[in-house]
Amino acid sequence: MMRIELKINGSTMSAEVDDDTPLLWVLRDTLKLKGTKYGCGIGQCGACTVIVDGQTARSCSLAATAAVGLEVTTIEGLSANGDQFVQKAWQDIRVPQCGYCQSGMIMAATALLGKKLFPTDEDIDREITNICRCGTYDRIRAAIHAAANGRT
Question: Does the keyword Metal-binding apply (predicted)?
Answer without folding.
Answer: yes
